[in-house]
Write the structure tokens for this entry.
Amino acid sequence: MATVIGCGTDLHPGAAAVVNGTTFSQSRVDDLVQAVCSFTKIQREQTGGTEPTATLAQARTSLSSALISFELTDLAAAQLGVTVKDSAVANAAAGNPVPEELDEADAELLQGFFEDSARFQLQQTAIGAHLEDPSVTTAAVTDEADAARAQGYLRKFAANQEVTVSPAYGAWNGSFVARRSGSLSDPVSETAKRLTRQSAADLPPSQVCG
């Protein structure tokens, strides 16, 4: 199966991205962006930060890339017969508490994103461990060496999947979503603090994240 790189012409209306037939709607991505940017604003105010650190365009690109990476890693894990327990995911996600200041809808979205991110990291660890020792099919905690071992396999896996991204969110390059300006996003952002930094000082509030 050939990778579709950055072409949004085959997307259904309202789709931000499609991975092997699984659609990520624009509303899902945009709602997540709102939740993450609200989280970022709360963190910034609590730590005494004075300026937002990312634009909405960066947030859309980074978070759509993360959702695609989560899906691809989940598919790769399933193909290898690798699983992670929900209890391990919950334990890992507990390291990113959701602020009480968030409204209920944003809090629910952010909690789900933290859990998806935790699952993604555990799956990477489990895949790397499985490649080293096929008898290993799960991981209870993350391990940097095992996760690093999984990267080459996951890059090859991703390059052979069918991924289409709306031009409004970026372009899929075979490994992650790149901003159409040419700058690259971090595909595995856990929180908005991991978004690529860009000066947002000259942009109106409606175009900045946090």
